[in-house]
Automatic annotation (TrEMBL):
<dbReference type="InterPro" id="IPR015720">
    <property type="entry name" value="Emp24-like"/>
</dbReference>
<dbReference type="GO" id="GO:0005793">
    <property type="term" value="C:endoplasmic reticulum-Golgi intermediate compartment"/>
</dbReference>
<dbReference type="GO" id="GO:0030134">
    <property type="term" value="C:COPII-coated ER to Golgi transport vesicle"/>
</dbReference>
<feature type="signal peptide">
    <location>
        <begin position="1"/>
        <end position="25"/>
    </location>
</feature>
<dbReference type="GO" id="GO:0005801">
    <property type="term" value="C:cis-Golgi network"/>
</dbReference>
<keyword id="KW-0812">Transmembrane</keyword>
<comment type="similarity">
    <text>Belongs to the EMP24/GP25L family.</text>
</comment>
<keyword id="KW-1133">Transmembrane helix</keyword>
<keyword id="KW-0732">Signal</keyword>
<feature type="transmembrane region" description="Helical">
    <location>
        <begin position="184"/>
        <end position="206"/>
    </location>
</feature>
<dbReference type="Pfam" id="PF01105">
    <property type="entry name" value="EMP24_GP25L"/>
</dbReference>
<dbReference type="GO" id="GO:0005794">
    <property type="term" value="C:Golgi apparatus"/>
</dbReference>
<dbReference type="GO" id="GO:0005783">
    <property type="term" value="C:endoplasmic reticulum"/>
</dbReference>
<keyword id="KW-0472">Membrane</keyword>
<protein>
    <recommendedName>
        <fullName>GOLD domain-containing protein</fullName>
    </recommendedName>
</protein>
<dbReference type="GO" id="GO:0006886">
    <property type="term" value="P:intracellular protein transport"/>
</dbReference>
<dbReference type="GO" id="GO:0005789">
    <property type="term" value="C:endoplasmic reticulum membrane"/>
</dbReference>
């Protein structure tokens, strides 16, 4: 009995970790002028799906008639993945081919700039959270326990891939840190050498100067 409950707890924990780490539902209060952005660090070959909609962030105010927003999504290297104007709601989806920070920016369209209280609701799903499990169940003809195990398998794979990505990132950061420390050490040695050389030249110059003045 205790073992069965332990396994259930493990399953729930793994599934919760996978979902909470790959799903973000947020509200962005848009400035009257300018841009509001949100970024997410995502590894390579990951499915990203997001829905966004314009809502009224102030309960005591009315949504301005015809208010629209523009949205732009860019990759870590600045590639344009999604760009729409005059929108009240929309969706973007893509599979990453670069590792790094993906940026989604929203702003009020020009003819409505100055309008207060506009908010964007953004439902950002990554990896396993973006997968259409109902379609998978129909295609593979699975249900019940088998379906839950299939989702659990996907969650474990997502966590494993994320751990590998974090490990690689740690190795990259450690390599950068080691190179930086080595450069700092060489710079310190070079600075010390320059100081010694300057001191020697100063002593030589002063000695020569005093000899000419017959002070020593």
């Amino acid at each position: 009995m205790g073992t069965r409950w332990s396994w259930r707890a493990i399953v729930v924990f793994i599934w919760w970790c996978a979902i909470t780490s790959t799903t973000q539902a947020i509200w962005l209060d848009l400035p009257t002028s300018g841009t509001k952005c949100v970024s997410e660090e995502i590894q390579n070959h990951v499915v990203v799906l997001a829905d966004y909609s314009l809502i009224n962030g102030q309960e005591d105010a009315h949504m301005p008639s015809g208010a629209t927003i523009s949205v732009r999504v860019t990759s870590p290297y600045g590639n344009n993945l999604h760009h729409k104007e005059n929108m009240t709601h929309g969706q973007f989806a893509f599979t990453t081919n670069e590792s790094g920070n993906y940026l989604a920016c929203f702003w009020v369209d020009g003819h409505h700039q100055g309008t207060k209280g506009l908010t964007v609701s953004l439902d950002w799903r990554i990896g396993i959270a973006a997968k259409d499990w109902e379609s998978v169940a129909k295609k593979e003809k699975i249900d019940g326990v088998e379906f839950e195990l299939r989702k659990l398998e996907g969650a474990v794979e997502a966590i494993h891939e994320n751990l590998i990505y974090l490990k690689n990132r740690e190795a990259e950061m450690r390599e950068v840190s080691e190179k930086t420390n080595a450069r700092v050490a060489w710079f310190s040695i070079l600075s010390l050498g320059v100081c010694i050389a300057v001191s020697v030249l100063q002593l030589w110059y002063l000695k020569r100067f005093f000899h000419k003045k017959k002070l020593i």
